[in-house]
Every structure is written in structure tokens, then in C-alpha cells.
Amino acid sequence: MKTSVGLTKQLQGLDGEHFLHPFTDFGALRKKGSRIITRADGVYIWDSEGNQILDGMSGLWCCNLGYGRQEIVDAVAKQMQELPYYNSFFQCTHPPAIELARRLADIAPEHMNNVFFTGSGSEANDTVVRMVHRYWDLKGQPDKKVIIGRRNGYHGSTIAGASLGGMGFMHKQFIPLPYVEHIQQPYWYAEGGELSPEEFGLQAARELETKINELGVDKVAAFIAEPIQGAGGVIVPPATYWPEIKRICDEYGILLVVDEVIFGFGRTGKMFGSQYYDLKPDLMPFAKGVTNGYQPLGGVMVGDRVAAVLKEDSEDFAHGYTYSGHPVTCAAALATLDILEREQLVAKVADQTGPYLQQRWSELAEHPLVGETRGVGCVGALELVKNKQSRARFDGSSAGDICRDMSIKAGLVMRAVGNTMIIAPPLVLTDDGVDELVDKARKALDLTAKELGV
Ligand code: PXG
Is residue 348 helix, strand or coil? Predict the structure, then answer.
């Protein structure tokens, strides 16, 4: 749909009047007017002014197979006709949820054979808290309640999700759960100082050991982390980080929760980020890409040692949502997994799309504004800096905000996290698509440099 400028203004007016957007300064947006997206196809979106924009963020890290996937639409329509809703409470179930549970058990790491369904990644992380606490209660260690996360980690926006995450700007707007603690993030470029990435990775990981000892291992239940921080700025940990975290979790016997909401379903070139880093998580929350973003579905994959204990519980596990295992969302997920397998997209990211994107993306490091580029598979980040040698940053998020707007002007959705620019394009991006993305990102950087007068 191409709308007229007049209609765009009218919709923006109504939007500002009635619609409270997530993570938004309502007043500022109302003044500026929101961008109205009216349709999408393949790797492109179109706005109400008719501009065609390459979606470098796969919606919000979720439309990994791109738009216009009729097969998912058909599966959803068929399921809606057959059984649009039934619950999985009170000893009931239905074929789509059963089939999806089995399918997920097939593709998850070997030791993960059970799933609890939710409606989102945030609900998945609320479920994580409930499972972790129940597990240790049933193990006869009810004092083990503390969950350790990381500063600048993101695990969603419910009270539990936002508490597990370590976003200071979120924490200051509510009272985080008292049993969640945070340690340093493995963000070498911003916090590594004079240390090598390898030294810094070890140091950041060892904060977990220090924190466990400070709190007492008898109080600590679990550690939660994203394999690579997504919303925090595509922070790829140094190679030394995950092996050391693994060692500490094993040695102290605490549960390892790897949040796969962004990296699940192929983004690193492995089915799960845990497999990319050779981790053996006890719990694996997921969402987003499982339905290609077409339906709201999340869940928690449960490792055998936790599942065995929960399944021996003589009481109900007193937790669940009306839409846990909603049949229509499960049908969307099954169609998504069919496509992912048939088009061999995970292998394609590992062998072709990922390496080519990383090679072309790294060329942007030569740009005068860019201090570092990094990435894995189909994600990338670049740091906008005043000075490449000293790694001196621009104030606040000024450069990032400009670059985000310039990127749209250049025809590309690139997200700004402060002064870090990030991309997570659909896994179906072709080599030509990669070239287009990098050309547009470079144009955005040139326009940003001009605007900043550097
Ligand atoms: N865990 C991780 C790792 C996430 O990235 C969630 C949990 C929560 O999922 P739901 O479905 O409840 O949103 C997320 C979500 C951003 C951005 O700006 C990232 C997310 C959500 C919204 C914005 O990068 N990730």
C-alpha cells in the first residue's frame, strides 16, 4: 500500500494520540512522527511514503527467512480452520504442540528433550526463574535462589526478564527482583582497557567465580547469559570467555541458562548459539526465529538433568500461560522449521552467507568513523568512534542516532545501540544482498561523517 503524504500525517497523528510504543520517548516520537511500515516482501520493507528499505534487522531479530513466506501463512490459516485454540492445561493437548515439542527435541542439543511453551522470550525467561527455583527446591536445596546475569545483558521486559537483564536504564524505572545479581559483560572494545581480548575474556568470566564465592555457592542457583549479547550491541565474547564460564558452572554445580532468543535457529551458522560455543546448557529459552516472527511463540528447552527432577515432582508445576503451546503458533513454527531444513539455511549461513557477510562487513573498518567491526554468521556490529587509536567515543548516543537516520535515508535498517551500529539481516540474504547492505551501510557512514563534521 502506498499512502499519500496526507494519509501518512493523519496516521502519525492518530499513532501519537493513542498508541504507546515499546521503549519509546512518547513525547519526542509524537513530535517527530513514527515511520509507518505498510508491507514487506523478501528482505525488504516498504514505508507509507513508498520507500523500499533493506531490512538489516530481520524485523526485530526474528524474520530470519524473510517476508512473503506463503507456506507459513497457509499453515496458520489451515490450523485456524481446524483448531484455532485449545489449551494444554488440565491434562489436554493437541497435535501441533506435540509435533513441535518432538521436532524441537530433535534439533536441540542431544541432552535436551523437553520443552515448555510460552508466548514470548520474556515469558520464557519468567519460566526459567520458576523452573530454576523449583529444581533446587526439589533437590532439597531451597536456599539456592540467586540467579547471576550480566550487566548490559538483555532477557526481556517482564519483571523477571528485565531483572535478569542488566540494562541500567531499565532497572532505574522499577524495582528489580532481589535475588538477581550481575557481573561484568565480556565487552572487550569498551571495557577491555590495556588487556588483550583473551586476557579480558578470562577476567570477565572469572567474575562469575568471585560472585559465587562472595554469595556462597549454597545460595547460587544459576547463571544466565546470551551466547553473544544481542540488544546490548552484538558483543561477541573473546574466545577464552565461554570455556571459562563452562568450567566455573561445572565446578560449582550451578545451572547454566543460555538465552537463545536471538541466536537460536541458525543465526550463527549452527542451529543454536550454544552449539557454536560448544555449551551444554541446562535451560535454553527461545522465541523470535522459531516462527520467523509470524506468530508470537517462545519456550524453554529443558536439559535432561532438570527435566528428570521436574518430572518426578509429586505436585503440579504451578506455572503456565493461556497461550502455552497455542496451536496456531505451533503450526507457524512447524512450517518455519520445514523451510529452514529444506533450504538448508543453517549450513548456508555457516558456509556462504556468514563468511561473505563477515568479509564484506569487515571492510567497513577502514572508514574514518569506525573503530572496530565484529560479527559471527548473520550478525554484525561496528563501533562509531572519534578516535580509532584511543577508542574515544562520541558523547551519549549522538553519532548512533544520526547514523541510524542516515541508514534509513540510504535504504537500510541498521539499529543503533548507543554509538554501536548493529545488523542482523535475514538468513536468506544473497551475496548481492550482502553487497547492497554493505554499500548502503558505507553510504550511511559517509552521511554521518558529513553531519558530524568529521
Ligand atoms: N531474550 C533475549 C536474548 C532477547 O533478545 C528477549 C529475551 C525477550 O523476548 P520478547 O519476545 O519478550 O521480546 C529478547 C528480545 C532490540 C530488541 O532492540 C531486542 C529484543 C526485543 C526488543 C528489542 O534489540 N530482544
Answer: helix
59 lines ligand 1 (CB under 6 A): no
The mean pLDDT value for 322-346 works out to 98
CA–CA separation, 112 vs 225, rounded Å? 18
State pLDDT tens for residues 166-185: 999 999 999 999 999 999 99
Is 35-65+344-452 CATH 3.40.50.1970?
Answer: no
CA distances from 335 to 96, 145, 178, 209, 327 (A): 11, 38, 41, 42, 12
Answer yes or no: is the C-beta of 226 below 6 A from any ligand 1 atom: yes
Indicate if ligand 1 lies below 6 Å from the C-beta of 155. Answer: yes
Spans of all domains in the chain: 35-65+344-452, 71-342
Rounded to the nearest angstrom, the distance between the alpha carbon of 154 and the centre of ligand 1 is 7
pLDDT digits (tens, 9 = 90+) for 285-331: 999 999 999 999 999 999 999 999 999 999 999 999 999 999 999 99
| Residue having the nearest C-alpha atom to atom 2 of ligand 1 | 155
DSSP state for residue 423 in the 8-state scheme: E
Nearest CA to ligand 1 atom 22: 60
Would you say the CB of residue 261 lies under 6 angstroms from ligand 1? yes
CATH for 71-342, among 3.90.1150.10, 3.50.50.60, 3.40.640.10, 3.40.1000.20? 3.40.640.10
Q: What is the distance in A from the centroid of ligand 1 to the CA of 82?
A: 31
Beta bridge partners of 39: 46
Instruction: Render pLDDT for 57-73 as a digit per residue (tens, 0 to 9).
Output: 999 999 999 999 999 99
* Best residue among 261, 290, 321 to mutate for probing ligand 1, ranked by most atoms within 8 Å of CB: 261
With contact defined as beta carbons under 8 Å apart, do 191 and 185 qualify? yes
Distance from residue 108's CA to the centre of ligand 1 (Å): 21
Distance CA 454, CA 384 (A): 12
Percent of the chain with pLDDT over 70: 99
Q: Which of 45, 11, 61 is nearest to 408 (CA)?
A: 45
